[in-house]
Amino acid sequence: NAANTEDVRAPASLETPLSVPNKMLMAAGPSNLTPRAAQAGGLPSLGPMHPETFRLMDEIKEGLQYAFQTKNPVTLCLSCAGHGGMEAALANILEPGDTAVMCKNSFWFDRASDMATRQGARVVPIDVKPGQPLTLEAAEEAVAKHRPRLLFVVHGESSTGVHQSLEGFGAMCHKYGTLLVVDAVASLGGTPLYTDRWELDVVYSGSQKVFNAPPGLSPITFSPRAMEHIQSRKTPCPVFYYDVLSIGDSWGCFGKRSYHHTLPVTLFYALREALALVAEEGLTASWRRHQLAAQRLHDGLERLGLRLLVEKPEHRLATVTAVLLPDNMDWATLLRTAMARHAVDLSAGLGPTFGRAFRVGLMGTNANPKAVDRVVNVLQDVIKNPIAAA
Ligand code: PMP
């Protein structure tokens, strides 16, 4: 009987047990899971409308308000990677025909400008040399000239290792009726960020970086000013899944609770525990620990004769460092040797740093002196004894 036969056979690959190596994840992300987050992810599933799920979401919201340093009622996490946070931030603010001014100094400009263009916006880049941050003066010049709907900047510029200062940017944007959208995927929790104090309108992040939770969640927060605009936009958010007016309902942001989509609760458990760890340590202690780890890394790299891409120490990001490739070594050899001999994961360059630099991440639990010393020792060995390509 044809109805009882299979046209496609069960794959032989699934007969072998799942095998996952334990790598030291010192790349630009993801970072290693903490045991507490990993264990939480194995707890029983719950439905999206169960009261225990609502309580869990409320706890995550409070943890995120702490991490974002905000009282914004519309603070939640989206069920998607950091790219989804970026797409949601832009899709909720932009309407076709709007202008978006974007700092162009990194790979993330390419992604954000692609998304904004697909959403029908006109993108105006502010050209900044990769490895350098956008100055408030250059930002104001562009915002005053174009009066855009939004200004997009990346706080923790992970493709070049730049720390983008945000002080003054919010107030400047608001003088011109512009909203400030900030990518904090690679920085939230690891370097100071004050959503309310700095008047940031939309900030999004990722679960897999400083929080040491599994990839797949994107924390996001919207200021009252951003919500006012969203509530009065002429066209609905073009992507149903990312429409904060409906997803905010499932997070209880507007009073009632309604089903939006089946929530990845096991990821929520892990993020909840990750946020509990941040709260236990304290944000300021976490920021300081990341700063000290980065300083130790930068000193160690310089002792090896390596040069950082970002020249000015005050522009260097604590969580991700871009290091110029040593002479006579290509990035593939460097990464391959570190992984094959030491099970240490490092990143290649990305966008403007591709082929020029490699990147080291110090995020969450990995931002500690022991991990830093291990990376420096590994790099010393890799430079001395690279494994040639097969
Ligand atoms: N923005 C920045 C600054 C990032 O570092 C990353 C991840 N490397 C992203 C956005 C995208 O995040 P994801 O890979 O989770 O989509």
UniProtKB/TrEMBL annotation:
Question: According to the UniProt record, what class of enzyme is this?
Answer: transferase
Positions contributing to substrate binding = R359
Q: Does the keyword Transferase apply?
A: yes
The alphabetized UniProt keywords are: Aminotransferase, Pyridoxal phosphate, Transferase
Task: Please give the biological process terms from Gene Ontology that the record holds.
Answer: glycine biosynthetic process, by transamination of glyoxylate
The residue range of the signal peptide is none
Which residues are modified to N6-(pyridoxal phosphate)lysine? Answer: K209
UniProt name for this protein = Alanine--glyoxylate aminotransferase
Q: Which organism is it from?
A: Thrips palmi (Melon thrips)
Q: Its gene?
A: LOC117649418
